[in-house]
Amino acid sequence: MTALDHYLRDQQPFLESVFNAIQDGIIVLDRNFTIVRTNRWMESKYASHMPLIDKKCHAVLRNRKDSCLTCTCSVSLETGKPYIEVVPYPSGQNPTEWFEISVFRIEDVDGKVMGALGHVKDITERRQAEELLKDEVTRRRILVEQSRDGIVVLEQNGKVYEANQEFAHMLGYSLDEVNRLHVWDWDAQFNKQQLMEMLQFIDDTGDHFETRHRRKDGTFYDVEISTNGAVYRGQKLIFCVCRDITERITDRKNNEKQKLIMESHLRQAQKMEALGSLAGGIAHDFNNILSAIYGYAELAQLRCSEHSKLRHYIDQIGMASLRAKKLVQQILTFSRQGKSEKRILDISSVIEETLKLIRATFPATIEIRQNIKSDPGAVVADETQIHQVFMNLCTNAFHSMEKEGGLLEVELVPVRIGVYDSSSYPVISPGNYLKLVVSDTGHGMDQDTLAQIFNPYFTTKKTGEGTGMGLSTVHGIVKDHGGSIKVYSRPGVGTTFQVFLPLAETDPDHSTAETRLFSSSTGYILFVDDEKQLTEIGNELLEGLGYLVETRVNPIDAINAFRMNPNKYDLIITDMTMPKMTGEKLAKAIKKIRPDIPIILCTGFSATISADTLTEIGVSQVLMKPVTSSQLANAVRRVMDGQVP
Fold it and tell me: Whole-model pTM above 0.85?
């Protein structure tokens, strides 16, 4: 025996102990692939199932044909290379066990093949962990692919590491094409340098921002991005979740636009409110001034020859004063502080009077033609509002022809609209109407503009040149009067507005109070106004009518005078707005002394006192300043005769 044999024999107990201590299976096969030796692990694994010694290895390790396992071992025995394979096999106890099998050739000291050594390792737990990991990866992949958001993973140099199908779909590329792109190939808001800097600073705390992406076809869409940095296999990656927010951005822009429009409307409303407050504040004082101008003009008319040149000048002063009065009333009505007063009206006189003013203000480059039928009929309308409608239409025509000049045509004719005709006017009923036509040869309007012209605040004029309220107001007035408005226009040809107002069933009252102005009258009148000029005018006009007149510029003095002799007076005429005491309070004080005394209230601002209040304090009639002599004469006569309660 050699020294090695002696050594191995001496070490036999030690080697046997080591052989059995190994916690993996060890089997020894002869050249016929028969098991000749096993360790304790193998015996414990199979002792209760089957004996191992003298069994073929394929019967022990797995349910494969002998030839299969024989071939496996043969390869190892013939080549001398170890053979390793991971296989499942039933042990009779757990059909889901997995083992890693390694087969090695055994040679003697002379290199002769003696058999094979099999190493069997139980890797069931590892295999199960791998399967769980595989399932988790698959599950996560499914979640990523099913996501309605685009997901892309970027390397730190900006190249795509991985992306899901939705991200490719959002960009319009195939997934293979996306995997060859860099982030700057689709980001349209930041340049390459900016994007590289952003990638460097994204960490595990993440970031959130909005940007724009460019599709393959060159179109753009808005996107919201959430990013997060992480290290994977030693490489820093940036995970990006991308959500298309084009609709949200569009809604946001629309909301912002709507907000700006609403703010603009609010500012415009505040301007109109300020205009109304200004109009209300100045109306009384301004009408007092107009009352003085018109009153003295009327007094001058009485002392001038009817056909003299001076009388013509005075007449023009009176007409201008009345136009100024209507202008103040128009502003009050427009700012909703005035009261609409509809009556049977011959609007042909309103149109003709306005045309006189227009001819004086329009440039010579604009020709004006009119076709107003004699006695076309009357409508139930507010004179100030009809004037406003006509002026707005003419002003629009002027603006359209201001640069190049042109022709303004005005027509006022009665028309009959039948049942079949009314289909062209959806808000109008069959019947008799007065048709007002205002036509110009200006630049005209396209269909898109025509569709919006009656919308509040819509205007084609530059900032500061118009409020956009003109045609909206016109439309509202015409509708309020039971009428309809149509417009025809073509770019470069011109525009025609047609206004239809229902004809009144009765004719307007053309009678005038001038015939009664100097009729014989009697009575004693107390005239109260804080403006001395107006008391002077009132005194002279009323005395000219035959009345006895006593004037006061202080309302307290007027009350004291009335208290001294209440039965002396037949009528009180008082201003509304006066220092120390209003006309309303003066009327109440007078009524306490003598309840049956009639009172006429003069005011420059009709909204300062309600109709209910007037009835309560016993005011017989209210006159708007400036008061003409005929208005004053008629009012005094009716009150004195008891026609007005």
Answer: no
